Amino acid sequence: xxxxxxxxxxxxxxxxxxxxxxxxxxxxxxxxxxxxxxxxxxxxxxxxxxxxxxxxxxxxxxxxxxxxxxxxxxxxxxxxxxxxxxxxxxxxxxxxxxxxxxxxxxxxxxxxxxxxxxxxxxxxxxxxxxxxxxxxxxxxxxxxxxxxxxxxxxxxxxxxxxxxxxxxxxxxxxxxxxxxxxxxxxxxxxxxxxxxxxxxxxxxxxxxxxxxxxxxxxxxxx
Length: 222
Description:
Blueprint: H1 20-23, H2 29-40, H3 45-51, E1 59-70, E2 78-88, E3 93-101, H4 110-113, H5 119-131, H6 145-160, E4 165-172, H7 180-189, E5 199-201, E6 210-216
C-alpha cells in the first residue's frame, strides 16, 4: 500500500489511470466518475440510494481512485478498481468497489481471457470463483472476467479493513444502460435477477455479506 494525499479536484485523478491521455476524455467513464464523486463531496446520491438498502445513512469515509488490489496467479497481479470506497452506515462499515461505465465494455469475456491459459491464470480463476462461492468449471465463457475480479476486490478489502460487508457497484453514465445485460448475466451467477438502481445480496456463500448493484449516474457529468 502507498501513502495517499487529499485530492484538490477531478483533475488529480487522471495521473492514476493506466492510459492517462487516452482515458481522460469527455464522454468516458474515468472523467465522468471523477466529476461525479468530487462534485458530490461524499457519496453521489445515486450510489447512496443503493447503499440505503443495507442500512440507513450511508456516508463516505474515504475513496481511493484507481485502487489496485493484489490477486494470486497470472502475469498481471492486480485488479485496478476505478474507485475503492469505504462507507459507514449507522452501525456497519462497507467495502465498496466502483466500476465506472459509459459505452466501454467490461473488458474481455472469460473465454477470451482463458485462451492458452497459463497455470497462473487457472489459479487466479479458481481463487476468484471460490471467493464468490462458485465452481470455476461452471462459469460460462460469456461472463466478463472484469466483473469477477472487481467483485472479489471488494471482498478482499472488506477482509483487510475488517469491514462488515462488501459491495460491487457499476456506476453507469450510459443513457441506454449499455452493457447492463452483461452485468445481469454475472449477477445471475450469484443467484440475483437484477434491475437497474437496486442493490442485491448475493445468494452464494462468501466470507462476508456481498452486494451487487447498478447505479445510474447523472448524465450531466458527461
